Amino acid sequence: MSALLPRAAQVKRAAWLLVAILGLCVLWELYKLLMPDDGVSIGDTLVLPRTDDASMPHISEIIGTFDDPEVAGAAQASTVGSAVSSAAWYSLRLAAAGFLFGSLVGFALALLMQRVRIAERALMPWAVLSQTVPLIALAPLVYGWGANLTLFGLDWQPWMSVSIISAYLAFVPVTVGALRGLQSPPAVQTELLACYAASWWQTVLRLRLPAAVPYLIPALKLAAASAVIGAIVAEISTGLAGGIGRLIITYAQQATGDPARVYAPIIGAAVMGIVAVGSITLLDIGLRRFQGIPEPSAEPDIAGSVGGGPVLRPWRSRA
User: Can you give the pTM of this predicted structure?
Assistant: First the structure.
């Protein structure tokens, strides 16, 4: 029975996501119905957006635009939906590459900071400070620097700059979450392994890494969402063709003739974020056995102390 609880929780979470999407659509239509076309202004300042069809099309029009041809009048033209899907898949792959690289860098930094305490005091403030640099200014610089690079005889490709920006946003959440998880085991457990003459790597593999899973999964979800945002912003800033960011710019230029089309790539970008976070949820399910809590058991204790001191009990799964 307990094994079914995590699965039921995932179904409940998905149901709430659908309810939230439907609620957002209802609020959109209610706002368009009740508010004036010119919006709400206080003096010369517009405080609430306009609700006319050019600024805020109906949900049905936005959904219907996915079946429209991307180029009107062209023979065998692809639809807007297929163009958005292709662009989203391209951007998602760039974000995945940046996410993997950023996660590796972040986890390596966390291991270094856990091993060498002075490294934590020296590097963590700079890692957090790095996230304050505006991407809209950083992306063109990375793109320009990469154009002059050659790695192992291979020329730097434009898509690599987008992945680097994604990695730049992804590594800090992983660093913070992994470091907190690696430092989470209590002293009694680390001292026990030290009494068994376990090396630092053995302690990491047997104790610290399993204990870090509950901290690492939320950090990976945040990093995955950040990698998607970084890829989209980098594509917009650098003008990289083929991605969802470039498609947003292209359709925004056509907003006068077809305002509903602007929202198609935005919906595609939102789906990218859901897919990215959902993939980490699958990883979360696979690592469920590590997300346990210490609980009393009739099994023999691993270690104890004379005189009623602290006792280390085995790590038990929730499932």
Answer: 0.80
